[in-house]
Design goal:
9 helices; Immunoglobulin-like; about 290 residues; about 35% helix; 4-stranded mixed sheet; 5-stranded mixed sheet; alpha+beta
Length: about 290
């Protein structure tokens, strides 16, 4: 008897197969915008279109359109979702914005693309790697630490928690519900105060916050103007797109810089784009991108 895979397993296998075919380990994070443009050859463009969540266009050439005013983690999930449509050959798809950021008319294809996107960005191996390298138990660690892992994976905090609970089974439902009650803005302030008291200044209280540590590997640090990054003690930033104040890095203008962590001889690119960038994804970090 021939068994048909469930949508979840079908999506997971397709996402892992795509990663494997492009030489990306299942334990590594990825920048989905770079993956779409540089690896898959799909044009990705950010649009000023408030009613749009995302769109996949199959002809004349594959393209993904993403709303420019969404949070970066949500934009990443949208891009991964649209890649799912591309992989499964669904043809053109338009996803409009609902109250909770969900497609207004969900279908089997939409659900499959959503599951694919989650597994592409958050495969079990990558989530476990991010937790274990930081010695975190998802069943008991503070929610701020899961916010740190979400930043490393390039996804939103809520997306990671829901995926860990509903799909990966890493946390029980009561724990997931409690974690989802936490407000990311409050967690950012708590995390900033814990790691660097200077990050509590009023002009940066509502910015996105990322914790850069020796385990941040596999992709650049992507920020928007105004975002903050907490750095290890022995770090040196070089470039004009951000300003370093001790262990605090503040993104100041579009561009690309380099961050070196002396204690580990590890370095990485830091890329900054406008808060609401409109244009091609491949030039989003240039100072004067062609929009």
């Amino acid at each position: 008897m021939r068994h048909t895979l469930s949508p979840g397993r079908n999506a997971a296998r397709a996402a892992l197969r795509l990663r494997h075919s492009k030489g990306i380990p299942p334990s590594a994070p990825l920048c989905v915008f770079d993956f779409a443009t540089d690896v898959l050859g799909i044009e990705v463009r950010f649009l000023d279109a408030p009613s749009l969540e995302g769109m996949y266009v199959k002809r004349p050439g594959p393209a993904i359109l993403i709303a420019a005013d969404r949070p970066p983690g949500r934009q990443a999930m949208t891009c991964a979702h649209e890649i799912g449509h591309h992989v499964f050959g669904h043809g053109a798809r338009l996803d409009r914005c609902g109250e909770e950021g969900q497609a207004l008319q969900p279908s089997a294809d939409e659900w499959l693309a959503t599951l694919f996107g989650a597994h592409l960005l958050m495969p079990r191996a990558a989530v476990l790697h991010g937790l274990h390298r930081r010695s975190l138990d998802p069943r008991s660690c503070p929610p701020e630490d899961l916010l740190t892992v979400a930043g490393w994976l390039g996804v939103g905090y809520g997306a990671l928690v829901r995926h860990m609970q509903a799909t990966l089974g890493l946390i029980p439902r009561p724990r997931g519900s409690a974690l989802l009650e936490q407000q990311p803005q409050v967690m950012r302030r708590t995390l900033a105060a814990r790691l660097d008291p200077s990050a509590r200044s009023p002009d940066t209280a509502d910015a996105d916050l990322f914790v850069i540590d020796a385990d941040w590997t596999g992709r650049p640090v992507d920020l928007r103007v105004g975002d903050l990054a907490i750095l290890p003690e022995s770090s040196r930033f070089e470039g004009g797109c951000a300003a370093q104040h001790g262990t605090l890095l503040i993104a100041t203008r579009p561009g690309v810089g380099r961050l070196a962590i002396d204690s580990t001889e590890h370095s990485m690119y830091v890329r900054v784009r406008r808060t609401m960038y409109v244009g091609l994804a491949e030039v989003r970090h240039l100072e004067d991108p062609d929009q």
